[in-house]
C-alpha cells in the first residue's frame, strides 16, 4: 500500500478515539480509494491539517479546483477518443455488413469501389485500435474521471451540475462485430 505519511507501528503512540456515526465508514472508503489503511488515512489527514494556511488560502483552493477540473477534462477527452474509435469500428462494420448483404442478394448499387475500400481500411484500423485498448485501460480512465469528480465535489465546485455524471467503461469486442 502506498502511503504519504510517517511510518507507524506497534511501538507508535496509541490513542483511543470516538467517532460520530458513519465517520468510520467514510474514512474506510477514503482509505481504500487512496490505497491506505484506515490508520494511515487518519494520520495523513491529521498531518495535512498541520500545513500552515492551506485550508484558508483561497488561491490554493482555486488552484486545487482548477487542477481537478483539468484532470476531469483530460480523462473525459481520453475516454471520448476511445469512444470515437469504438463508434468508428461499429459504424464501418455495419456499413460493410450492409454492402455484403446487398452484394449477396445481387441488389444493384452505386457504391464506388474506392469508398468501399476506404470503409474496409477504417474498419480494420479501428478494430486494431479497439483490440489494443484493454478493459483495464478503460477502467483506469473511468477511475481517473470519477476521482476528479470526487475532488471537485469535495472542493464544493459551484460549476458542477447537481448530479455529476459518473463514467462507466463499456467496450464491445471488435471480434464480435467481425463475426456478424
Description of the molecule:
The structure is a single chain. By secondary structure, the protein is mostly helical. It is 64% helix and 0% strand. The protein is built from 6 helices and no strands. Helix 1 packs across helix 2 (38-49) and helix 3 crosses helix 4. The model is unreliable at 157-163 (pLDDT under 50).
Task: Give the structure's gist in a few sentences.
The protein is mostly helical and 180 residues long.
- What is the chains' assembly state? single chain
Task: Describe the global form.
Answer: elongated
**Rg (C-alpha, Å):** 25 Å
Average pLDDT confidence is 76
List keywords for this structure.
64% helix, 0% strand, mainly alpha, elongated, 6 helices, 180 residues
Q: Mind sketching the topology for me?
A:
Blueprint lengths: L22 H11 L4 H12 L8 H47 L8 H20 L2 H20 L19 H6 L1
Helix pairs in contact: 1-2, 3-4, 3-5
Amino acid at each position: 500500500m502506498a502511503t504519504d505519511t510517517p511510518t507507524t507501528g506497534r511501538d507508535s503512540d496509541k490513542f483511543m478515539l470516538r467517532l460520530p456515526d458513519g465517520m468510520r465508514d467514510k474514512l474506510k472508503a477514503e482509505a481504500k480509494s487512496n490505497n491506505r489503511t484506515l490508520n494511515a488515512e487518519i494520520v495523513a489527514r491529521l498531518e495535512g491539517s498541520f500545513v500552515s494556511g492551506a485550508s484558508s488560502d483561497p488561491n490554493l483552493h482555486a488552484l486545487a479546483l482548477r487542477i481537478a477540473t483539468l484532470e476531469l477534462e483530460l480523462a473525459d477527452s481520453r475516454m471520448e477518443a476511445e469512444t470515437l474509435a469504438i463508434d468508428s469500428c461499429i459504424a464501418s462494420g455495419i456499413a460493410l455488413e450492409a454492402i455484403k448483404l446487398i452484394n449477396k442478394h445481387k441488389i444493384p448499387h452505386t457504391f464506388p469501389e474506392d469508398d468501399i475500400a476506404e470503409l474496409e481500411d477504417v474498419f480494420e484500423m479501428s478494430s486494431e485500435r479497439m483490440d489494443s485498448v484493454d478493459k483495464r485501460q478503460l477502467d483506469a480512465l473511468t477511475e481517473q474521471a470519477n476521482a476528479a469528480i470526487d475532488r471537485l465535489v469535495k472542493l464544493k465546485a459551484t460549476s458542477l451540475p447537481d448530479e455529476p455524471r459518473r463514467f462507466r467503461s463499456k467496450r464491445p469486442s471488435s471480434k464480435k462485430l467481425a463475426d456478424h
